[in-house]
Structures are given as C-alpha cells and as structure tokens.
Automatic annotation (TrEMBL):
<protein>
    <submittedName>
        <fullName>Obscurin-like protein</fullName>
    </submittedName>
</protein>
<feature type="region of interest" description="Disordered">
    <location>
        <begin position="1"/>
        <end position="24"/>
    </location>
</feature>
Amino acid sequence: MSFLQDYLRGASSSAPLPPPPPLTSLPPLSSLSPPLLSSLSSHLISSPSLPSSSASTLLSLPSPPPPFPSHLSLLLGSISLHSSSAYPLLISLFQKHLSLIASAPSFLPEALAGLGYALLRVPPRSHYFSQIVSFLFTVWRDSGIASLENGVMVFKLVDWLVSSFIGSGYVEKVSAFCYEFTNLEKCGEKRYAEFAVVMACCGTLRALKVGSSRYKFELSPEMKESVEIAIGVFAEKAILGYEKDDVSLLIKCIVLGLARCGQIGFNPNIVKSLCIALTNEVFPLKSLIQSSLQNSNGNALTKLKEHMEGILFKEAGAVTGVLCNQYSVSDDPTKEFVESLMWDYSHELYSSLRSAILVHKGKSNNLLLSELERIAEAAFLMVVVIANEVSKSRLNPRPGVGAKPPVSIRMLVAFSCVEYLRRVRLPEYTDAVRRAVLTVQDDVALSSDFLDSMPSYYELTGKLDCEDMVEDLYHWSKDDVQTARVLFYLRVIPTFVSLIPSSLFAMKVASTMFLYMQHPNEKVARASHSLLVSFMSSSNQKDDEERLSLKEQLTFYYVQRAVEAYPGVTPFEGLASGVVALVRNLPAGSPGTFYCTYSLISKAKSLSDEATARSPNMWKFWEESSEPCKKVVDLLLRLLSLVDIQVLPYLLREVAGLVSQLPKDGQDALLGEMYVYVAESDDVTRKPVLVSWLQSLSYLSSQPVSNPVAISCL
C-alpha cells in the first residue's frame, strides 16, 4: 500500500514507508489483480528506473471492471513520478471511467492517491495540470458519494500536496494550484463539487500555515486572502440556503475544515455558519430528542451512538474554539447574532431536555436517556465556552470599547436553562457568571429584568405540555431540569437582593422561594432558606418601611412552613439560619419574633415527647444525641443571646416550662447543658439575668413536686 493511500485512509503515521528493492521489469498488466497493482505502485513510488515498455503496455489495456480503475489510477500516479508519459493515460482513465471510479467508494483513496502523485510532478504550466486537478473536484459530481468523510480525504490530500510543493520550493505551483479552485467562476463552469472545493481551501490554509513556519515560506497575502474569500462565499451560500436547500454537507465541511486549518480572517458569514453548524449539526438536540420521544426503541439509541461517533461531534471542541476566535474580532452586528443564537439555543435545549427526561424516566429508558445527556453535556460546555468569550468582550470591555450590560441578563437566563447539565466546576462558567452578576449588582433595572425572566409560580406548578407523558405522573418536585433552573435563580438573587424593591420581591420571588422550601432535595431547600436569610438581612433606604413590613409578613409564613416540615423536608441548617436571621433583623418586640419563639418551643415539646416514648434512655446520652429535639433545644439556647430584651423574658419562661415537663433525666440533661452555655457566655449584660434565672429553675426542678405557678413566673 502506498504512503499517500494509507494517509488518505486516515492512518496515524506521517512517515513514508521504507523504500523497497528497485524494479527491473513489470509483469503483464492482464495478470495483475488490484492488490498486486497497489503493491506494484508502492515500489514505483521510489523506483529509480522504469521499463520503457510500461507506457505502451498500459495504452493497450482494455476497459477494466471496478475496482480495477482505482488501482490503475494509483499505478499510473506512481509511474508519473518517473515518467510524464503517464499523464495522458491517467487523464484518459478518468475521462472514460469517472463514474466507474466513483461507483467503488471504498477504493477512492487509491484513485485520489493516483491524482495526488501525478500532481506532485506535473508542471503547473502544462495543459495536463488543470485537467488532473479538475478530476479531484468532479469525481463526486453525479455519483452520490459526497460525504463528510470524503471531504476529509480531499482536505488531507490537498494539505499533503501543498505542503509538498512548499517543501520543494514550488511557489509558482502553489499559486497555480490554488487558482484552480479559488476562481469561483471557473469552479461553477466545471461544476466542481462545492464541499470538495471548501475542503481543498481549508487544506491549503493549513499547509500554508505550517509551511510558512517550517520552511520559512514567503506567504503571499493575496494567495491566503483568495482562499479565505472563497470559503466566505460558500459560507454565505450555505447560510442563505440552509432552510430550503440541501446544504447540510457544505456547512459541515466548512466548519470541520476551519477546525483543522487554524486561524482565519474575520468573515461574518463564516461566523454565522459556525453558529448554525454547532446548534443544528454538531448538537442537534432538539431533533434528536424529538426522534427519541417518537421512537424510543433500539433505532433511536443507535442513532444517538452514531452521532457521537461521527467526525463532527468529535471535533466539537475545535469548532467551538474557531467560533470564539472569530467572535473576539467580530463587529457588533455579528456578535449580536452569535449571542442571540446561543441564548435561544439554550432555551430550546431546556424545553426539549425537560420533556425528554420526564418521559424517558417515566418509561425507564435509562440507557437512551444516558446517551442523550452525554450529547447535552457536551452542548453545555459549548454554551459555557462561548458565553465566557461573550462576557470577556461585553462585560469586561477593553479600553475604548463600551460595555453591553443587557447581555448579562440574557446570559444568566441562558445559564439557568442549562444548569441541569452542569456536572463539574468550570473556570469558564465561574468567570462568566461572576462578570454577569457583578453587572447586575450595580443596576436596579437589570436586577428587575432578571426577576422578570424567572418562571412564575403558576408556570412552575402547572402541568407540562407533553403528549408523550401521562399527566397524572407529573409533579413539579420531580421535574429535575426545571428544579435546576430555579436553583440557579435561588443562588443568584441573593447577590443583589438589596436592590430589589420589596413589592417586586413579594410578587416575583416569595411564592417560589416558599414553594421550593418544600422540595425533597435538601440542596434546593437550603438554597431557598438562604434566599430568605439574604432578604431578611437586606436593607434599602428607598423603601425601608415597606421592606420591614414585608419581613414581618414573611416571618409568620416562613416559621409556619419551615417548623411544620421539620424534621423531614426542612433541613435543620436552613431552619437555624432562617430563625437567626429573622430574630436579628426584626425590630425589638416584633410579633414575628414572639411567634417564632412560641413555634420552636411547641416543636421542641412535641419532639421531646416522641423521642422519650421511642427511647426512654435517650436522656442518659443527651450530649451525643442526634435527635431532632436536641437540635431544636440547642437552637433555643442560642436564641437566649440573640432575642431582644423585650422578647427575652417570654423566651426564658417558655424554656422553663419546657424543662419542667420533662422526666427527671431530661431535666438534669438540659440543665447541665444550659449551665455550660451560660458559663461560656461573654455577654456581660445578659449573663447576670441568665445566671439568676438558671439558679431559680434548677432549684424548682430539684423539688419533689413541680410548681407550675412558680415556673411560670421565671
């Protein structure tokens, strides 16, 4: 097998095969099978001499059956390395048997290798040169063998040819070769396959880039520019015809070729084609998900695996990198196109993935769902990388370049839509979110816009419009994709909660916050509690009175829902942080603080009774206990140093009543814990009061008969 043939088939080795012994004669061509022809061509590539009878022997060859012409092309190309007599024979072969060569696609590497070897030696001014080049772009014309894989073959062949020209110092030949497929008028006249021309342009750019650094090749700016212009023209055609014409292959070849050829000058059509290809060809999740919902059997799974094994999907990272490079030097209209397309794609991904996960989980299609999520996770990385580039350009502008704050809202909304797919901590994600949040923190209007983008309570709890799912199976708490989106909002809102007018918080945030406090996922519930803590701790001089009134209202509802659902749905850490926040931020003597104290005492009593009935010896191991009642009691003891002086007497009386109702072991355990707590207190104002109260409580508890009246006076 020849080196070029091996290279075109995708072999990893880049070094030529060792030269075989020189040939002294050729066997009769009628006795040569295709494998023997291929072997013979390998010898001819490096053979120092060629029998004079070879040309006449080939001339007398009758019309061959496939795949003989492809091997014959390889043989003639090998002969052309030593004798120009092979050029007319090769041309004649392709003229007579072009369709026959194309009918054996598995042997196309042999046919193209023959063309490649011939072009390596044919002079650029020879009339043979243009004819041989034309076969490289017309062999695909009417055969139906045009494909991305064959496009890669053209890319590699042209890259190899131009690199060889540069390495041999054939500058004129490089120019002549490029002219053959960058002269678009000529390409149209000869009906060149557009996907092959695009791949040839990209292969040329790669060779020029490598050659200019490796061989100190003097690169002509006009030459590189003509190649880039040609790519831009085809990109424009692909964009205009994407919805109505069959240009899917063309746009795939454009982006794959660009991913492999390196940096290219800015062109708005190239940027747009990259965006369209990423969202519709590399990550066509909307169509893949629709297909999986309509046909969830083995066919859908096979389709997903085939997509992931495709060349374009494997090059997704490189294609995204090319888009980011183009975006960084784009004009404003092009940047806006990229941004709008990415944000809209994130919304579509959210809607499609939400339905897919609910349906496939309901049908236990775990393997199918796993493959879908693998593609979606890759799409998430694409969105994050591009969003990070957008944030660096729009939200962290260079000197002289104006910022675009509204971009931050659409970016954050897009991130909320893909939050479900975030599996690891990415620096690009963190940086982009940080820049966007910092922008929102300084702008009241932007913060309001962000809240407006959050799904309403009715949207969150309403039934999902999905034909493939049984309606009775839907519940908002089982909607993982929606939950992840809301969690993103719950985490971002605290960063600018002081900017939010209290009326807007009550209308847009409060109901959702309380809803997700009841979510079975502890992480989500804790985030809801943290949001309440942030609001309770916030202040805004413009609406202080209204904000304080809202805090009072929220306190009653919060305490009722949070304490009622503990233990169980309410995580203790969330409850504790919420209680501490409202006690610290409500005004002295607030009814909300009294209600909070009352509710905790009632919960502590009921939990203690349950624990005692379940485990009478619990009090002997009180210090090591992890019972919910101990956690509530510890929280009550913490409140002794936090509640205001108007509420403190009520709290002391209620705690004393709680202690008096416990069995003797329970009283001793709690009194011992309170002695330690008071002893360690450094509050010089409260400590004397607490010491006196504790001594009195201890005395009354030591009496054989408890005195409720005396305890109520503590």
